[in-house]
């Protein structure tokens, strides 16, 4: 078997961003693929801060491959690998070629940075304890054990662009004792060393989860252990690296176990002693190099994103909140920086629960903060005035376009059909079509049509990415200014004053989802049966 | 509608034609995917366009319940509501009305029915509540109303309301239904003539008469006499419960007699073998939920027969569904193993297989058109059946039906002939 070599991952912070240990920062990820995949069109760049698209069983939920490649926000895709442990050996490891994971899952080399993590960072379900030499992973066929050596083999064989090192993150019964957390940081460090063992393939690009849960001393100890120069057999085991940290590309923080830990602590100590997240992250990063990329999984709101950018300087955020909202029927509608003047009255919601009957006749695009490339076309029956100064949402719901080509199946080409077929404008630009409307989505949700979730997933990811683009622009504009920090804080405050950070629409939509589910026949399978009769 | 035959098979009754409607041209024979509730499950209209689909079906009964006519009116019709730029066909709503409602009674006036969801009298005639045409809640669903609703929906092809009886019904009810369908056709024609929609929308008649050749002949006589009022003919009353050997004979009888210069539409036909037999007998159009529904259950259609991706034999199979298939799923080299991993767990699996199955249906019909125009349709039939049924054996009824139009698929073939309705595929739904 040929040696698969990992691509070169470079993360460059803007000069000014690099000066401070904590605080808003912008940067660029640049991925260069090795021979034989190397070619400029297989390289890719991501401006940070930005989002990471999450996957379920290896797919971006609800999106067919043509749809995920049409969604510009989908650049970094994270693949929890545990479901593939249902089969031994895991099937992606059987895929031939230089880029088995990309190939098996249908992600494009020049389009998608694919990272591989053992467990789904969003899954907080209670699990059997991890061991010294294995973690417990969740599959449809129950719990599977995964050892650091297996993880090293699987990741080497699958050759993703980024590997999350195996971390001993307990999901047993928080809050965790000092003894348990000590075990956790020792194991995580030792499992990292396994990943760093010399290999003809070179070292993969490794992201390390910052262990220690809610304990500042444990977090500090973990970071220190990374920076400690190793000697003797320990040093040989990770040569040529002198410290564990030298072999690490970046750092990650999973909010799900941290929140569980905080909740448990607050239950134990009373809510008078709240634990906040920023000091925990600071304690992990206090001594570590500032120029490495920082990732957070499972933020719940854009507000939380802004806080973590302001206080810590996080570079990448998983997009679960956007994707989960799409799952239950919510269309995101927010923008940063906030346009226009002061907010009067009630704060705005972060999106629209399209189950709500108020949308039944609402023939406008999903979001007020964005327009489609074309205005809605309702035959002049409904007049809608489109604010041309609004930014365009590029998603396939707001700005759908005629496919640039179509399939022909026999005697249906224009020389037979005599039809004039136009796929693009004469200059080659897309032939946009009117946006899908809230009224249509309302209908699709109430009839349980899966297309609703495909359109919402694409839209929410693009709105979330627009939010990050706005963040990057505001940071860039304020860099080097004396009052830069103040101006940033003003924009953050304006956002918080404009948008409510409660997730009421998501809760309401979840209720709507369940009601339609019940009305149409108790559960997915029963519903399917009913549709079979009805069609 | 412009309908022009551009080629005829010298052996069978198959033909290739060009049907131009208000939303473009569709080459026939064609298969119409079914977007029951104004969406092909999980896909967008742009995806359907990219697959080369130029004609699909919406169900009147469903659209009338949701989103309702007020919404469709406000949207400017079903095309705009769902963002579909190509041709659209709606059924009359009668079939679902009868099959979904427990308490339907058919009278000369129309169909009386109660709520399909609860059956409660308070929910009587849900269809009417959302309909601007209902004067009273207990009004029957009349032929005129079906046409009016279809005018509001705005499909390029609309269907007459027919008096639907199960194909297993026997006795005087079959004759009554046939005769009533003829009378209702007259009422639909008048409603359509008076609507001013004749230039954009085209009314199709539905031939009834059950499985009785004499009744079918009577119905054909009457409906052919009304040719000037209709743009095309559907062959109705075949619900799938009848013997396949009876089914094809009814299709043949109707297709043989229907006017040459009108498209012929076989309702609810979707298995590849049924499609090709119907095409050989002279049918131009067919629709069925089968290819999209079976996709959701994890079954992919291929030239070598259906594949049930839930079966563990596909778990490590790294090849695509069909190497030669141009659909996004196969062109993107999605492996059977990957589909096996996600099938029935992720909606994306249904989408991937739906894309493929729609293209499979389109290819079966496209290859048929190509073969007809190239005067090698009998060869195409022989090759298709030999490959599709290699492992299961030829359904006897297909052999009989194709012999009736001069094609013997058993010629030079050692594939056994299976009596009865034919192939027993391992469909996941069983
Ligand atoms: Zn959008
Ligand atoms: Zn395919």
Automatic annotation (TrEMBL), chain A:
GO biological process annotation, one example: tRNA modification
Residues of the tRNA-guanine(15) transglycosylase-like domain: 25-200, 279-482
Origin superkingdom: Eukaryota
A Pfam family it matches: TGT
SUPFAM superfamilies in the cross-refs: tRNA-guanine transglycosylase
Name of the protein: tRNA-guanine(15) transglycosylase-like domain-containing protein
Transmembrane spans: none
UniProt signal peptide: none
PANTHER family from the UniProt entry: QUEUINE TRNA-RIBOSYLTRANSFERASE ACCESSORY SUBUNIT 2
Automatic annotation (TrEMBL), chain B:
GO molecular function: metal ion binding; tRNA-guanosine(34) queuine transglycosylase activity
Main location: cytoplasm
Enzyme Commission number: 2.4.2.64
InterPro entries from the UniProt entry: TGT (IPR004803), TGT-like_sf (IPR036511), tRNA_ribo_trans-like (IPR002616)
Coiled coil: none
Cofactor(s) of this protein: Zn(2+)
Segments forming domain tRNA-guanine(15) transglycosylase-like: 12-389
Quaternary context: Heterodimer of a catalytic subunit and an accessory subunit.
Family: Belongs to the queuine tRNA-ribosyltransferase family.
Name of the featured protein: Queuine tRNA-ribosyltransferase catalytic subunit 1
């Amino acid at each position: 078997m040929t040696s698969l070599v990992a691509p070169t991952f470079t993360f460059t912070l803007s000069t000014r961003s690099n000066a401070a240990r904590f605080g808003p920062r912008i940067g660029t990820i640049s991925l260069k693929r090795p021979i034989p995949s190397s070619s400029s069109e297989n390289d890719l760049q991501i401006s940070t801060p930005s989002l990471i698209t999450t996957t379920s069983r290896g797919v971006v939920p609800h999106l067919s491959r043509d749809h995920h490649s049409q969604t510009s926000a989908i650049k970094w895709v994270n693949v929890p690998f545990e479901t593939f442990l249902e089969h031994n050996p895991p099937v992606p490891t059987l895929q031939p070629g230089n880029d088995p994971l990309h190939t098996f899952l249908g992600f494009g080399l020049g389009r998608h940075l694919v990272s591989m993590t053992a467990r789904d960072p969003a899954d907080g379900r209670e699990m059997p304890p991890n061991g010294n030499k294995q973690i417990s992973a969740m599959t449809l066929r129950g719990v599977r054990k995964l050892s650091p050596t297996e993880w090293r083999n699987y990741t080497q064989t699958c050759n993703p662009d980024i590997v999350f090192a195996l971390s001993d993150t307990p999901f047993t019964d928080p809050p965790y004792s000092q003894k348990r957390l000590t075990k956790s940081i020792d194991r995580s460090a030792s499992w990292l060393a396994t990943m760093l063992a010399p290999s003809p393939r070179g070292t993969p690009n490794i992201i390390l989860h910052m262990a220690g849960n809610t304990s500042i001393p444990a977090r500090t100890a973990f970071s220190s252990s990374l920076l400690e120069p190793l000697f003797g057999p320990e040093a040989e085991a990770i040569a040529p690296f002198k410290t564990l940290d030298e072999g690490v590309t970046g750092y990650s923080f999973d909010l799900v176990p941290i929140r569980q830990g905080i909740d448990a602590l607050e239950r134990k100590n009373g809510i008078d002693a709240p634990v906040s997240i920023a000091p925990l992250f600071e304690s992990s990063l206090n001594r570590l190099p500032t120029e490495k990329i920082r990732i957070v999984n499972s933020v719940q709101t854009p507000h939380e994103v802004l806080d973590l950018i302001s206080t810590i300087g996080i570079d990448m955020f998983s997009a679960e909140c956007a994707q989960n909202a799409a799952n239950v029927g919510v269309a995101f509608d927010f923008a940063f920086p906030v346009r226009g003047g002061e907010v009067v009255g009630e704060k705005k919601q972060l999106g629209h629960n399209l189950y709500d009957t108020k949308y039944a006749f609402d023939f406008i695009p999903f979001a007020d903060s964005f327009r489609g490339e074309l205005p809605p076309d309702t035959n002049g029956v409904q007049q809608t005035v489109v604010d041309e100064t609004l930014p365009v949402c590029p998603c396939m719901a707001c700005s759908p376009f005629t496919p640039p080509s179509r399939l022909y199946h026999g005697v249906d080409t224009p020389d037979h059909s005599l039809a004039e077929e136009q796929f693009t404008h004469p200059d080659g630009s897309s032939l946009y079509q009117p946006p899908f409307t809230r009224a249509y989505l309302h209908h699709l949700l109430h009839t349980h049509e899966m297309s609703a979730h495909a359109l919402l997933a694409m839209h929410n990811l693009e709105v979330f990415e627009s939010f990050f683009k706005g963040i990057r622009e505001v940071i860039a504009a304020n860099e080097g200014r004396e009052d830069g920090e103040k101006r940033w804080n003003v924009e953050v405050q304006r956002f918080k004053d404009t948008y409510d950070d409660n997730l009421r629409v998501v809760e309401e939509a979840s209720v709507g989802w369940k009601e339609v589910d019940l009305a149409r026949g108790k559960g997915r399978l029963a519903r399917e049966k009913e549709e079979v009769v009805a069609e | 509608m412009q309908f022009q035959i551009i080629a005829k098979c010298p052996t069978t009754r198959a033909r290739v034609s060009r049907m131009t409607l208000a939303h473009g041209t569709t080459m026939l024979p064609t298969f119409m995917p079914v977007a029951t509730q104004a969406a092909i499950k999980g896909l967008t209209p742009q995806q359907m366009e990219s697959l080369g689909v130029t004609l699909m079906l919406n169900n009147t009964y469903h659209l009338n319940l949701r989103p309702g006519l007020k919404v469709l009116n406000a949207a400017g019709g079903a095309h705009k509501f769902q963002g579909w730029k190509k041709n659209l066909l709606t059924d009359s709503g009668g079939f679902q009305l009868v099959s979904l409602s427990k308490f339907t009674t058919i009278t000369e006036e129309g169909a009386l029915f109660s709520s399909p969801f609860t059956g409660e009298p308070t929910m009587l005639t849900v269809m009417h509540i959302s309909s601007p045409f209902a004067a009273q809640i207990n009004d029957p669903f009349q032929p005129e109303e079906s046409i009016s609703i279809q005018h509001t929906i705005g499909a390029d092809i609309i269907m007459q309301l027919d008096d639907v009886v199960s194909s297993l019904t026997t006795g005087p009810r079959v004759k009554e239904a046939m005769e009533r369908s003829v009378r209702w056709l007259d009422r639909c024609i008048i409603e359509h003539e008076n609507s001013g929609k004749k230039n954009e929308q085209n009314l199709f008649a539905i031939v009834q008469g059950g499985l009785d050749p004499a009744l079918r002949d009577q119905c054909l006589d009457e409906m052919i006499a009304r040719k000037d009022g209709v743009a095309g003919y559907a062959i109705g009353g075949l619900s799938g419960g009848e013997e396949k050997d009876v089914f094809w004979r009814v299709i043949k009888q109707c297709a043989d007699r229907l006017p040459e210069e009108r498209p012929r539409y076989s309702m609810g036909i979707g298995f590849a073998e049924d499609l090709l037999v119907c095409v050989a007998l002279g049918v131009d159009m067919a629709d069925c939920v089968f290819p999209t529904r079976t996709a959701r259950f994890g079954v992919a259609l291929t030239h070598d027969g259906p594949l049930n991706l839930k079966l563990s034999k596909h778990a490590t199979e790294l090849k695509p569904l069909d190497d030669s298939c141009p659909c996004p799923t196969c062109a993107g080299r999605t492996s059977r193993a990957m589909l096996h991993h996600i099938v029935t767990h992720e909606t994306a699996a249904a989408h991937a297989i739906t894309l493929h199955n729609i293209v499979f249906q389109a290819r079966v019909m496209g290859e048929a058109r190509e073969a007809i125009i190239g005067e090698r349709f009998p060869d195409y039939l022989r090759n298709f059946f030999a490959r599709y049924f290699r492992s299961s054996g030829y359904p006897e009824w297909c052999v009989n039906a194709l012999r009736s139009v001069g094609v013997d698929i058993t010629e030079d073939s050692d594939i056994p002939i299976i009596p009865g309705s034919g192939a027993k595929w391992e469909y996941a739904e069983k």
